[in-house]
Amino acid sequence: MMAGRLAVLRAATQTFSSSHGSRAPVARSGSAFLPSSLAALPRASLRAVPCLLPQKPKATGRSRWVRCMATAAAAADPAELKAARKDIRELLRTTHCHPILVRLGWHDSGTYDKNIKEWPQRGGANGSLRFDVELKHGANAGLVNALKLIQPIKDKYRNISYADLFQLASATAIEEAGGPKIPMTYGRVDVTGPDQCPPEGKLPDAGPRSPADHLREVFYRMGFDDKEIVAISGAHTLGRSRPERSGWGKPETKYTKNGPGAPGGQSWTAEWLKFDNSYFKEIKEKRDQDLLVLPTDAALFEDPAFKAYAEKYTEDQEAFFEDYAEAHAKLSNLGAKFNPPEGFTLDG
Ligand code: HEM
């Protein structure tokens, strides 16, 4: 218990005073997981997203069609999404980038505000995170790397929206890491310009004054309940926190100093590329100083209502998988506009 508190405190006092929102410049974190050829990609190639589409002479009908596809890219073809999923699986196999792809999907959708009816003002899974202005939000430090990793897949399947690709990548990463199958829907429409990005500050802080209240404030705004908050937090069974990005975590531990992927950071679990219920076991016991417990993680065993679910997931991985899959699918749909309106599924 004491050791865990020390880990929390140590993390809290490291480098930055802010919590989830890093003050580290995004560009600093340029090489994690990346083959050097990708790490060297100019940032301008991400900034100028609409220009990635084929450039045709403006006067031709073809040009108008191309620009139309840019705005209506969500008229997606299930066959293309399936092919993209195969490519994502290969990317995961070769770069071990599961955690950052999950974080990418979550940070695109987690800006949703259920009290705002209009799309895209309500935020959510709409591909806005591809724009520089949003990537530069403190909470998104490092996610430019995730975008660089999947941009070649986006370039290959142009009818797939960014919003769908982000969520496809995240769900595929969970499944490939050994997690449950997520009942996904596709057909999300992309926002078309950086002016449609959400304001900064919609995502949770890791070290607020009252972590349980803060979690409820942020996740209730998205339409989640206590059970879903605890289940979805279990995503931290994957991945690491890096002080140079979020300000949280140790620069390296015995579990991260050799990678896989770029070495370093502090993970929540020993096997941080394996999706299981070890996150709950570790944040309950807090016995290993090399493992991270953020204040918002600790709150899951401190708040009585959260604790009931956290205890259940510690004991029963099947129950965790079932609730996680539902909560993840809900997260992936937040605020999304689908074309066709009911969306479509890929399997079964
Ligand atoms: C409950 C509130 C949450 C807080 C306060 C929080 C905070 C954080 C922080 C500070 C990091 C470290 C980022 C870095 O330094 O690179 C992180 C990483 C991560 N988060 Fe969360 N998070 C929350 C919820 C979630 C949810 C809902 C998901 C997914 C459904 C998620 C998935 C991840 C993953 C997979 C990583 C590891 C990324 C990597 O290894 O590159 N988090 N989170």
Structural overview:
- The protein is mostly helical and 348 residues long.
- The protein has one domain (2-333): Orthogonal Bundle (Peroxidase, domain 1).
- It contains 15 helices and 2 strands.
- The protein has helices at 2-13, 36-39, 44-47, 61-71, 78-95, 98-109, 132-135, 143-156, 162-176, 211-221, 226-233, 278-285, 295-302, 304-315, 317-333, and strands spanning 240-241, 266-267.
- The structure holds protoporphyrin IX containing FE.
- Residues 20, 99-100, 102-103, 106, 142, 204, 206, 215, 232-233, 235-236, 238-242, 245-246, 248, 294, 296, 331 line the site of protoporphyrin IX containing FE.
- Belongs to the peroxidase family. Ascorbate peroxidase subfamily.
- Residues 124-348 form the Plant heme peroxidase family profile domain.
